[in-house]
Amino acid sequence: MNRIAGVPRRMASLRCLFERTLMKLVSRLAPALVGSSILAMGMVAHAADGGTILFVGNSFTFGSGSAVRYYRNNTVTDLNNEGIGGVPALFKVFAVQAGLKFDVSLETRGGVGLDFHLQNKQAEISSRPWDIVVAHGYSTLDQEHPRDPAKLISTSKEFADLMRNKNPKVDLYLTSTWSRPDQVFPEKGAWVGKPIEVMAKDIRVAYDKAAAGAGAKVVPVGDAFNRAITVGLADANPYDGLEANKINLWTYDSYHASTYGYYLEALMVFGRVTGRDPRSLGDRECSGMELGLSTAQVKQLQQIAYDELNAIAPLTANPKTSTERGTAARCPAH
User: Fold this and answer.
1) Helix 86-97 vs helix 259-274: angle between axes, to the nearest 10 degrees?
2) What is the model's pTM?
3) % of the chain residues with pLDDT over 90
4) What's the number of CA atoms in the CB half-sphere (13 Å) around residue 97?
5) What is the pLDDT of residues 84-123, one digit of tens each?
6) Kindly report the CA angle at 174 between 173 and 176, in degrees rounded to 5?
């Protein structure tokens, strides 16, 4: 009888021990679970409806070698007073068409990485507590030491710290740039002998590391270029002539982007920053018409951007295709 009477007490004691152990386990796991949730949310496209946005970069941002360079420069603020429109102006016109209100500024200098802006342009780039900043480094990662990501990683962290000193809540994006045919096909290239896609993949790996250290998100523009080649929209090698019915993503120097390339870059930034489906701009998107792209090309480039962005951070699908007869209209004046 004494043994039987002791059973409930032992069971109660075991239950209490189990509950205490469970509570300790939950308390230890809770921070990790919360952190994982935050990380997961960070992987989903951030939906920004407006605010101040700063672009910091080089010729890959200001659109060297294309009609994009001075395009609609009256709609953005060039902190260097050089009259640049570039990719920031394309972002602005996309945002206006989407009903979003962004105050767009840019600070660019050709042929440099983030180290230049940190050393020479701190006053300009830290002049305001920006809500969003989009930036990138030199196209080969390091001008003196191509393929070496060390400088990109260290300067991205330094740049992020500077931006957060002004606004701790700033959303920071790093643009992973494209393969350069002049670095792949000529014998002097740093990626000579490799398939054209490899350079962009290597650049992306470096930017992923830089973003992890800087607390930033990556805009995978180079991957979008690769996707355009893979699906047959773009030609892979401008040195051997342009294949029929394909576009050239690069301009005359096989280094900088063409108007097609910069248009795709702007679509990628727009989709990544706003969380909107680039296809929602429609195949009659006005800047495409003003820059000489056909509605078919606009539609194809929007699809490339959507597919690439959706692969890394799910977007709400919202394609828009014109069915009525007519042509694209001019973009709004401002």
Assistant:
1) 50
2) 0.86
3) 80
4) 26
5) 999 999 999 999 999 999 999 999 999 999 999 999 999 9
6) 140
Structure tokens at 253: 């120097």
Q: In angstroms, rounded to a whole number, what is the distance separating the alpha carbons of residues 109 and 310?
A: 31
Count of other CB atoms within 10 angstroms of residue 109: 18
CATH number of the domain residue 122 falls in: 3.40.50.1110
CA atoms within 13 A on the CB side of 186: 10
Listed in sequence order, the residues at least 6 apart from 89 whose beta carbon sits closer than 8 Å to its beta carbon are 68, 71, 72, 73, 75, 76, 104
Greater model confidence, 314 or 263: 263
Longest pairwise C-alpha distance within the chain: 97
For 199, phi then psi, to 5°, come to -60, -50
8 Å CB contact between 179 and 202: no
Give residues with Cβ within 8 angstroms of 330, minimum separation 6: 286, 289, 290
Domain housing 149: 50-257
- Is 16 inside any structural domain? no
Question: Mean pLDDT score of the chain, rounded to an integer?
Answer: 89
